[in-house]
Amino acid sequence: MTKQMHAFHMVNPSPWPLTGAASAFMLTSGLAMWFHKHSNTLIFLSMILMLLTMYQWWRDITREGTFQGHHTSLVQKSLRYGMILFIVSEVCFFFGFFWTFYHSSLSPSPDLGMMWPPKGVIPLDPFEIPLLNTAILLGSGVSVTWAHHSLMEKTHKDMVISLSITIILGIYFTLLQGMEYFNSTFNISDNAYGSTFFVATGFHGGHVIIGTLFLTVCLLRQLMFHFTSSHHFGFEAAAWYWHFVDVVWLFLFISIYWWGS
Amino acid sequence: MSETIEEKLKNYKTAPFDARFPNQNQTRNCYQNYLDFYRCTKALTAKGVDPLPCDWYRRVYKSLCPMSWVQKWDEQQEEGIFAGNV
After folding, report:
1. Contact between chains at A114 and B27 (C-beta distance less than 8 A)
2. What pLDDT, on a 0 to 100 scale, did the predictor assign at position A116?
């Protein structure tokens, strides 16, 4: 039997990069079809294809790493770099929205009456639900760290409990934000205030949902005993992502909710 | 400034250089003086004082602002939809 004389993982041919690319193409053109031709078909199909791609690709990675042992420490290192670079790209993404917000709010244009918040906009009180949301995310950062230490210390039950708490806090945040959105007196089409507020907090909320799903997958994997006390990169990646989401919220809270009111 | 406001108004030729707005785009200069005229008038008439000093701002905004903008803002003020804080 031939052995490989290196620690890298030569992945078997896989269709998922192609289906992923196809779904991305269909998503964008589907968006154009939705906007201009009032047709939902393409975008609907592309979302199904995207979900199938994600499920099967990540399932394959789990099979390759956890069950087939392809994730040597070198492979794990490159996966770490990959996750870090992805999170850096997400930081760049949010940086743009913060730039927009500060551009509009530091020197408001005459069309806005040269004031911020503009006349007629009643901003949300930062020290009500937004402050609670800050506490929730900070607390979930603590619980996910607890989960990590439990994992490393081989206390399986504690890990399940603390990870579950983290997920519950994430869901609680999402529900509270949803309530705030429903009950706010302004919406996205209300001048630059509405645009900056809902685009920035909206994308953040989307990332909270993604992070919560990622953590939930980790919980399911932990219940199936995929992780060991020394090898659990999937969980670490989820925890890094979750901390990133928390930090973005802190910036949102201080800039948009607090300073911007 | 050793001139009184009456002297300044009498010697007015055009809007002088305003260091708050040093660049080519003078939109904010126009808007700020428009706001200041109405704020000044509101404040002084509320105190029961002659609003003559406010005339400076009126002269400046009339020199700087496009007429269509002034008409638009005046209409907005009448309809109660003016965005500025007067």
Report:
1. no
2. 95
Q: Is there a single domain that holds both residue A59 and residue A131?
A: no
Within 8 A of A114 by CB-CB distance, chain B residues are 28, 31-32, 35, 84
Which residue of A110, A111, A115 is in closest CB contact with B85?
A: A115
Range of the domain at A186: 72-258
> What residues of chain A lie within 8 A of the CB of B35, using their CB?
114
Q: A70, A100, A121 — which closes off a domain? A: A70
CB within 8 Å: A110 and B84? yes
Q: Which of residues 8-27 of B touch A (CB under 8 A)?
A: 27
pLDDT in tens, B38-62: 999 999 999 999 999 999 999 999 9
Asked if B29 has any chain A CB less than 8 Å from its own CB, the reply is no
Higher-scoring residue by pLDDT: A4, A243: A243
- Cβ pair B28:A111 closer than 8 A: no
- Put simply, whether B83 touches A (Cβ < 8 Å) is yes
Both A121 and A234 in one domain: the answer is: yes
User: Is A62 in the same domain as A145?
Assistant: no
Number of domains in chain A: 2
Tell me, what's the pLDDT at B1?
53
Task: Select the residue of B27, B32, B83 nearest A112 (Cβ to Cβ).
Answer: B83
Rounded to an integer, the average pLDDT of A15-34 is 97
ipTM over 0.90: no
Same domain, A40 and A81: no
User: Is there a single domain that holds both residue A121 and residue A176?
Assistant: yes
Can you give the pTM of this predicted structure? Answer: 0.91
Looking at residue B6, what is its pLDDT? 87
Q: What is the pLDDT of residues A117-139, one digit of tens each?
A: 999 899 999 999 999 999 999 99
Q: What is the 3-state secondary structure (H, E, C) of chain A?
A: CCCCCCCCCCCCCCCHHHHHHHHHHHHHHHHHHHHHHCCCHHHHHHHHHHHHHHHHHHHHHHHHHHHCCCCCHHHHHHHHHHHHHHHHHHHHHHHHHHHHHHHHHHCCCHHHCCCCCCCCCCCCCCCCHHHHHHHHHHHHHHHHHHHHHHHHCCCHHHHHHHHHHHHHHHHHHHHHHHHHHHHCCCCCCCHHHHHHHHHHHHHHHHHHHHHHHHHHHHHHHHHCCCCCCCCCHHHHHHHHHHHHHHHHHHHHHHHHHHHCC
